[in-house]
Amino acid sequence: MKANLHGAVVASEPYGIDTAVSPWRPIHYLGSKLRALTSIEDALSSVTSVGSTVYDIFSGSGTVSSFLAQSRPVVSVDIQEYSRVLNNSLLSPVAVSFDEVGQLLSTRIDESLKSGVISAVMPLIEVEQEAIKLASQGKTELLADLLEAGSLQISVTKSANAIVDKAHREAERRISSLSDAGKYSAMMLRHFGGLYFSFRQAAELDVILSLSHSYRQDTKDTLIAAALTCASDLVNTVGKQFAQPIRPRNKEGMVKGNLYGLVARDRMRVASTSFLSAISKYSNLRRPPFDCRAVRLDYLDFIRETNLKGGVVYADPPYTRDHYSRFYHVLETMALRDDPRISTNKVNGQVLPSRGAYREERHQSPFCIRSQAPLAFDQMFEGVAVQGVPIVVSYSPYAADKDAHPRVMTIDAILEISRNYYAEVDVVSVGSFVHSKLNRTDLNKEGAAEAEFLIICKGAR
C-alpha cells in the first residue's frame, strides 16, 4: 500500500533485523544504556504503579525511551533536535516504502552527478579515491595531505600539496557557481566532507537530506533519523563520534603506519546504501502499545511546565566535563539542516576554525560544569519533588584508585542534595560493565568495575 509522493507510506514487506523485539541503538552513543535497560525498568517499577508515565528527561539516542515504551507511556525529552528526531521515530514509527525512497534517491543522485553537489565536488572525490588507492600500496603522503587539508569550510590556508590545493580550489569554484539552493544543499559537503566523511559520502548525505526534508513531518522525521543512523555508521573517526577527526600524522610529523586501515574501511562505504539499510530498520519497528511522544526542551523548563503527577521521572544527566553536543554536533546540524557558524580557536596567535568544525552555538550542559552542577541537581530534584513525583537518576561513580575519567559530581554529593527533597533514597548498582569510551584506546582512563548506579528517590518531602 502506498500514499502520495510526500506522505507516509507502508512498506510492502519487512526489511532488516527484527528491531521490534530486540533493543536497538540507532547511533553510536557515549554512555549508552543498552546493557542497563532491565535494571532501569525495575528501578522505575519499584517507585510507581504499573502503567504510570515515565518522563525520560535526558533521552539522548532513545534507547531507554523506546525500551520502556513497550511497557508504559513515555515522554522523551532532550534539548537537542537530533535527539527529538531519533526518539520520535522510535516512539511513533512510520513505515516507509523502501522501493519508493530508493527510486527517488537514485534519481536525485543521478541528477546531482550531472549538475549538482556531487558533480561540484568531483575533483576532490577523484583525488581522494586515488589517495586511498595509493595508500593501499603503502604510499600514504597524498592521503595524509588530503586529510590535513580538512573540509572546504575550515580549509583556510593553501595546502602544501599542489594536487590537493588544486582540487580544493576547483571544488570551491564549482560550488560557488551553483544556484543559491544548490549552495545551501551542499552544507554537509562544505562543513564535513573530507573531515568526518569521504567527499562522495558527504555529498550523498546532502542529497539524502534534501530528499528527506521534502516529505511531510511524520515521514520526514523517520527519513532524517535514518540519515542520522547512516552518518553515525559512516563517520570516519576512532569510536564513531564527531569530536576528533583522524590525525594522519604523529607528533613527530610522520604519517601513521596504519593510516590506510584507519580510513579505507569507512570512507569506501556507500552512503545511499547505508541510508536505505537504516530505513529498513526504522520501518520494521513496532509501534508501542501506549501513547508516547518526543519533546525538544530543556530538562528544567520541561519539569516546570509539565504536570508530572502520577508519573515517574528518569534522569540520565552527563557525568563528565565532556559536553555531549561536542560529540554529536554533526547530527544536530543534519537534524536542523542549517548552516551554522563554526567555532574558532587561537593557534600561535592566529584565529582558526575549530579542527572538528564544531557549531559556534552548541548546548553547554550545567551538569558538565563543576561550578554549576550542584545547582543543576538541586533544581532538578526540587522541581520533581514539589509535584510529589519519584525520580530515578543514573550516574557513574568515580574510581579515583583506578585513574578513572573524573566525574563532575560524586555519588555522595548527589545523595546529599537528593535527601533535601526526598525521605527515601536508595542506591542500586546495575552491574559490572564499562561505559563506551570514544577516544584513543591509549588515552582511555580505566573505568570503575561498577560503572553505573541508580539513585532511587521517593517520598517527596
UniProtKB/TrEMBL annotation:
Stored InterPro entries: DNA_methylase_N6_adenine_CS, MeTrfase_D12, SAM-dependent_MTases_sf
Catalysed reactions listed for this entry: a 2'-deoxyadenosine in DNA + S-adenosyl-L-methionine = an N(6)-methyl-2'-deoxyadenosine in DNA + S-adenosyl-L-homocysteine + H(+)
Top EC class, one word: transferase
Keywords, alphabetical: Methyltransferase, S-adenosyl-L-methionine, Transferase
Biological process according to GO: DNA restriction-modification system; methylation
EC number in record: 2.1.1.72
Protein name (database record): site-specific DNA-methyltransferase (adenine-specific)
Keyword field contains Methyltransferase: yes
Single annotated GO MF: site-specific DNA-methyltransferase (adenine-specific) activity
Keyword set includes Transferase: yes
Signal peptide (from-to): none
